[in-house]
Amino acid sequence: xHKFSLLLTVIAIAGAACTTGPAGPENALRIIATxxxxxxxxxxxxxxxxxxxxxxxxxxxxxxxxxxxxxVAELRDADLVVAIGLGLEPSIxxxxxxxxxxxxxxxxxxxxxxPRFFPDGSPDPHIWFDPVRMIDATRLIADTLAELDPTTDWxxxxxxxANQLADTDEQIASLMAGLNVxxxxxxxxxxxxxxxxxxYGLEVVGVIIPGxxxxxxxxxxxxxxxxRTINELAVPAIFAExxxxxxxxxxxxxxxTQPVTVVELLTESIAPAGQPGxxxxxxxxxxxxxxxxxxxxxxxxxx
Length: 303
Description:
This protein is of the alpha/beta class. The chain has helices spanning 3-15, 36-46, 69-77, 93-101, 131-148, 155-176, 194-200, 220-233, 247-253, 280-295, and strands spanning 18-19, 29-35, 50-56, 80-83, 105-108, 185-190, 203-209, 237-241, 261-265.
C-alpha cells in the first residue's frame, strides 16, 4: 500500500468520531458533525462552549462512509447533529432519521442555503465551496444552538467566523481575476465544484465520474467524450481529489493531444491538522490557488 494511503487508513481508524473542538465545560451541549468540514464550521461557532465530535474523519469520503455501532449510539445521545444533507451522506441518512425520531435535534444545512441542482434534477450537496452560502450556514447553526441553549450567546463567534468567510470570498475572487475567459474551464473528478464555478465565474466543462457522488462508474464512451472535450477546448489541467485515486485522471491525461496536468484538490474533507487545507477556509484558499496555477497555462482553443 502506498505510504500516503496507509497514513489515511490509520487516521481513519484512529479518528472515527474524533473530537475536533474542545471538550467544553461540564454539562455542555454535545454536538456531532457528519464531516470534518462541518465539524470545522461548528467548532468556529461554538468555541470552547460545547463538545464537538466528527463522524467521518479527515480523508474520509462521506458518499461511502459506514457508521460503527458505537457511532450510531452516540448519535442518539447527542444534543445536536449537524449534517450537509442533500444526499451527501447516503449511508448515514437512516441513522440520522432514527436519531431524530428518538429525540436528537438534527440540522441539515444544505436545504436551507439555496442549493443548486445537477442537470438530472438532483440537489448538489457541495455547498461548502461557496463561502457566502457557508455564511448563511454559520448563522443557521448559531440560531439552532440558541434554541437549544438560550442562556449562551452564540452569535459573537458566529459573526466573527462569518466575517472570515467573507474575507475568504474576496481573496478567492481576487485570485480568480488573474484568469482570462479562455482559462476558466474546469475538468474535475466528480461534480463537486459547481458552487465554486458559479461563484467565481468558471465553467465546469467535464467530470470524470458522472453525477455528484464518487460512487458512480463512468463508461468508456463517457471517458472518450471527455478526452475529446479536453482536446477541443485545450484544457490544461484535470482536477483530481486527495480523497480518491487519481488513476482515471492520469489515464485520461495520457490520452490527450496536448500536455495536461493532473492537480489534486481537497474536496470532501479538510486535511489532517497542521497540513495546508486543515480548515474550511484554508481548504478553499488552497484549492483556489491550485486551480489558478493549473488553469493559468491554458492556451487558445482550436477554432
